[in-house]
Specification:
Helices cover 73% and strands 0% of the residues. With 343 residues, it is an all-alpha fold. It starts with a helix and ends with a helix.
């Protein structure tokens, strides 16, 4: 399958951001759940987590997954069986990662490596209808429905404790993440980018950038572009059940980033060639294994450092820099190894 450098670059930036974010949370948040270990860390964590606006880099990864999924279907003509097998494999890896990282009591936690496969399985039948455009229209409707329930918990009193409710609507306790509402909408956004931008003979880059700007500005002007943040419950519904406009802002940023990067690389072949041969590509090609290994190793490595060394806030900053650097180095070599295996 043809690779698009713009997607590779943005995937690499996304996974690097997630590694930095995860280590920051593991170092300064009690039990990786909520509450600051060092009160002095408040400004650092809060500013990095919220006011910097960098969260869009991590949240756009499912959009890029949607683009890749559609391109893969188009190029490889994948069957229903192969999609289900791939989805099952990704989900199993995600559950195993839960157990190996956070303990077997967290085995069935719903996270991104379960959300993306489920989105693939849901989207596939509509993309394989004889009239694909009609299927895309239905997907659009489903994504709008998912978006409408972005920050809502309908029928929560009756069904909140059921696993299917947490998968579809969300978890009131914040122990499960990436529910279909609202995140299925950004996966579908990626599918549309794959269909109407990357496979178009002459993609109308300006139109996509304009659409992205409208989405992004609507989030910024409304004051919803920055995520709600609760440092006492860092992974809770404040983050994973955000406002509609926050999700729209993520879409807008991604539409601009994907189409703008693609256009830039086409206009400047020298830059394209340099990036094609750069270290960033390894982070993209090995993104799945990098995410899994960096999460397991990074979480346990951070806990070992925190438990066996008497760290104050100042020392924890140095430890954080070292841990991030080691994890990025490990991830680079994982990506390099995976890339060579694919060659």
């Amino acid at each position: 399958m043809k690779r698009y450098l713009s997607l590779d670059i943005l995937k690499a930036v996304g996974i690097i951001y997630l590694i930095i974010l995860h280590h920051t949370v593991w170092m300064f948040i009690q039990g990786d759940v909520g509450g600051l270990i060092f009160p002095e860390a408040h400004d650092l964590v809060y500013n990095f987590y919220r006011t910097s606006g960098l969260g869009v880099l991590g949240f756009q990864v499912p959009i890029l997954a949607g683009v890749t999924f559609y391109l893969m279907l188009h190029k490889k003509n994948m069957s229903w069986t192969s999609v289900v097998k791939r989805a099952a494999g990704l989900s199993i890896l995600g559950f195993l990662m839960n157990g190996l990282a956070w303990g077997w009591g967290s085995l069935w936690t719903w996270d991104v490596l379960q959300f993306i496969p489920l989105s693939m399985v849901i989207a596939y039948p509509f993309l394989r209808w004889r009239k694909e455009d009609l299927g895309c229209c239905i997907l659009l409707v489903l994504s709008i429905v998912a978006l409408v329930f972005a920050d809502q918990f309908p029928f929560g009193r009756q069904f909140a404790d059921y696993y299917f409710y947490k998968v579809i609507i969300g978890d009131l306790s914040g122990s499960n993440y990436w529910a279909l509402c609202p995140w299925f909408s950004i996966f579908v956004c990626g599918i549309f980018m794959g269909k109407f931008f990357f496979l178009h003979e002459r993609p109308k880059t300006a139109y996509w950038i304009l659409l992205g700007a409208v989405f992004l500005l609507s989030a910024v002007v409304s004051g919803k572009f920055l995520p709600n943040t609760n440092l006492d419950h860092i992974w809770g519904p404040f983050l994973f059940k955000p406002s509609i406009l926050y999700v729209v802002g993520i879409m807008g940023f991604s539409l601009i980033a994907v189409s703008g990067t693609h256009f830039l690389l086409q206009q400047y072949p020298v830059l394209n060639d340099k990036l094609q041969k750069s270290w960033l590509i390894y982070y993209s090609k090995g993104i799945l294994w990098i995410y899994i290994v960096s999460t397991i190793a990074g979480y346990h490595g951070t806990n070992i450092v925190r438990n066996y060394f008497a760290l104050d806030f100042s020392k924890s900053i140095y430890a954080l820099i070292i841990l991030i650097s080691l994890n990025l180095l490990l991830s680079y070599h994982i990506g390099k190894f995976v890339s060579r295996q694919k060659a």
